[in-house]
Amino acid sequence: MKESPENQQASPTFWQKSWVKNSLTVLVFVIAYLSLRPFMQGDVIQGQVPDIQLESISGETVSLHDLQEPYLIHIWATWCPICDITKGSVESVAEDYRVINIATQSGDDDLLLAYALQNDLNPQIIVNDFDGSLMQQFGAKAVPADFIVGPNGQIEFVEVGFTSEIGLRLRLWWAGL
Questions:
Q1: In terms of C-beta distances under 8 Å and separation of at least 24 residues, what long-range contacts does 34-37 make, across chains too?
Q2: How many CB atoms lie within 10 A of CB 21?
Q3: For the chain, which has fewer Cβ within 10 Å, the N-terminal or C-terminal residue?
Q4: How many Å apart are CA 66 and CA 153, to the nearest integer?
C-alpha cells in the first residue's frame, strides 16, 4: 500500500541540510575576517621595538628595551567591546609573562585607575596613551593590537583583533625559543 503524498516527507536536498548551511555560514565569516585582516593590521611596525620609557598609571617605570624574556605589548581601549572580552585573558597571561597594557584614548589616569580597579586589572602594567600617539607609533589602526616581543627586542608576532589566551601563550612561548 502506497502512502498518500501528504503523508510523505521529502528529504531535504544537500544544500538544505542544516550542517551544510552552518558550514557555509562559518566559511563566509572566515573569508570576511581574512579579507578584513590586512586593513586591521594597518602599517604596524616590524623589527626592533621602539626604545621608549613609559610610566604606568600607578607610577611604575616601564621600559620596552631592558627585558631579557619574551613579553606582550597589548594596546586596547576601555570603549572597545572586543578588548573587554580579551581583558581576562591578557591578565591571565600577565601572571606568567611580562605584559605592558597600553590603554589608548581612554581618558586620564584617574579614569583608567578607576576602570582598572573596577575590572580587576593590574594598574602597575597599564600605560595611558591619552592621545593615541603610542598606538600611532606602533602603527596600529584598530584595537586590540598585540605585539609579541622576543628576548632580543624584535617584534616576533603582531595580531590585531581578537586573540585567544592560548594563542597569546603559544606565541610568547615560541618567541622565547
A1: 37/160, 37/161
A2: 12
A3: N
A4: 9
- Chain segment 53-108, per-residue pLDDT in tens: 899 999 999 887 777 899 999 999 999 999 999 999 999 999 999 999 999 999 99
In the chain, where do the E strands start and end?
47-48, 53-55, 61-63, 71-76, 98-104, 126-129, 145-149, 154-160
The total number of residues shown for the chain amounts to 177
- What span, in angstroms and rounded, lies between the C-alpha atoms of 16 and 7? 20
The cell for 101 is 597594557
* Cα separation, 40 vs 44, whole angstroms: 10
Give the three-state DSSP class for 134.
helix
In this structure, the strands spanning 145-149 and 98-104 are: unpaired
End-to-end CA distance of the chain: 73
Q: State the DSSP string of 162-175.
A: ---HHHHHHHHHHH
AA letter at 62: V
